[in-house]
Design goal:
Chain lengths: 95, 347
């Protein structure tokens, strides 16, 4: 019955006082311009934001939850990446 | 208020409003996301996430039955929003004042938005919206029984807001804590907007019931016709609801149909008094010992007839949806052809 299959777009909104765009959901639209207009109507009806990004879902690559431990593991054994790892001699100011 | 404290009667002084409960659910969802995830493989991990009240996300492993059950529930929820635009849309051109008309338009626009949030949530489970739309049109998937009843007067728009959206909220507030992340997040968004729908409906009835005797009679007639179909929205009673036990074990549902129905009745009694309208149930009395109202159950035979496609407006609703879909085919084709052409030009 449905012969048209519009691509899926992921929608990101930056709130009025927000620093970054946040993912709010997704929608189907034939092109970027209509995706943007529909996202405006759908996700900012109540002044939720001042900036919108739409991205074709096909363009997003996500990390896999199956390998998340191995994938994010290296961070844990590099404690020297944190400033608290380092001893600061007593009496040093502004460090 | 936390999780299962939901059963606290809302009319108690100091009880949290439904909107507060939605805010609580949203806060808990954010807190849960900050906790360490359980470890383990497949089933262990899945059950541990649910036990810890954390959320299953689209790329997590999940039992096939969980996935299927969620697709069914979320899709039918989405369909209900889309079909639900029809009974109210019926009164847009005939709304009695410009203000009421603008409100009704905004409300129907919200319903379309709710449909889209929900289709998007369903799609994270690996189905396609176009496929779900087809399943609605050819009757393989259902939508809420309530939208198969006709809107005969302007007061019906008020009764739908108060009773139908009210019942929907009572049903949906616990779903803000559903174990599937995308569904819970969609429900939080929906409930916040649904609360506007319920209040505007209540206001319509309140204005009518404090207007002329004719207006009051119209309001009463609408409440009389929508009361039992609204009670039936919570689904069949305990023992006749095939999906309840499994849905509760998976923390998709948090309460039984009967528990939610009871809560709705308890809520409505006080609200009806302030409207100065009566609920059409001579068996409705306060049960002091149980701390709740006794009431007459809706006609479940009627509910099953309606669900099977034989309610007053079933054929009309689907025919209308199908005509819009098929009649709009050339517009979708045009949009697609235009997008292709533009992509070629810019390439």
């Amino acid at each position: 019955m449905s012969t048209t299959d519009w691509p899926l777009w992921e929608v990101f909104v930056r709130p009025r006082r927000g620093l970054a765009h946040t993912h709010v959901g997704s929608l189907h639209a034939p092109d970027a311009e209509l995706a943007l207009r529909n996202a405006r109507d759908l996700y900012t009806r109540r002044q939720e934001g001042v900036s919108l990004w739409v991205v074709p879902a096909m363009s997003i690559t996500a990390s896999s939850p199956d390998e998340k431990d191995a994938f994010f593991d290296p961070a844990a054994d590099k404690v020297y990446r944190h400033p608290t790892f380092y001893d600061v001699p007593e009496g040093v100011a502004h460090l | 208020m936390y999780g299962n404290d939901f059963s606290e009667p809302p009319e108690q002084p100091g009880a949290r409003s439904l909107l507060d409960q939605v805010a609580d659910a949203e806060r808990d969802l954010e807190l849960a996301a900050q906790q360490d995830r359980p470890t383990g493989t497949e089933d262990d991990y899945f059950m541990a996430v649910i036990a810890a009240d954390q959320k299953i996300e689209p790329r997590d492993w999940m039992p096939e039955k969980y996935r299927k059950n969620l697709i069914r529930q979320i899709a039918q929820h989405a369909h209900s929003e889309i079909i639900g635009m029809q009974p109210e849309g019926n009164w847009i051109s005939r709304a009695p004042t410009l203000k009421r008309k603008a409100i009704l338009l905004a409300k129907v626009q919200d319903e379309a938005g709710h449909g889209l949030y929900l289709y998007a949530a369903a799609e994270t489970l690996g189905v396609d919206r176009a496929e779900l739309s087809d399943m609605l049109i050819d009757g393989r998937q259902k939508y809420s029984s309530i939208f198969n009843y006709p809107t005969l007067t302007w007061a019906d728009v008020g009764a739908i807001g108060w009773l139908v959206d009210g019942a929907a909220i009572v049903n949906q507030v616990p779903l803000c804590r559903a174990s599937y992340g995308p569904y819970a997040r969609a429900m939080i968004r929906v409930c916040k907007e649904e609360s506007f729908h319920q209040r505007q409906g209540y206001e319509i009835l309140h204005v009518l019931s404090h207007g002329t005797p004719e207006q009051k009679a119209m309001a009463q007639d609408a409440v009389d016709r929508w009361w039992y179909p609204s009670l039936a929205m919570f689904g069949p009673p305990e023992g006749e609801s095939p999906n309840t036990a499994q849905s509760m074990a998976w923390k998709v549902k948090r309460f039984t149909n009967d528990e939610l129905r009871q809560r709705f009745v308890d809520m409505c009694v006080g609200q009806a008094e302030i409207l100065d309208l009566t609920l059409p149930d001579p068996g409705l009395v306060w049960n002091e010992a149980e701390g709740r109202h006794d009431y007459t159950q809706p006609d479940y035979d009627e509910l099953f007839r309606v669900i099977k496609g034989n309610g007053p407006c079933n054929r009309e609703r689907i025919t209308h949806r199908k005509a819009a879909h098929e009649g709009g085919q050339w517009v979708r084709d045009a949009a697609e052809a235009y997008a292709k052409k533009k992509a070629k030009v810019s390439a």
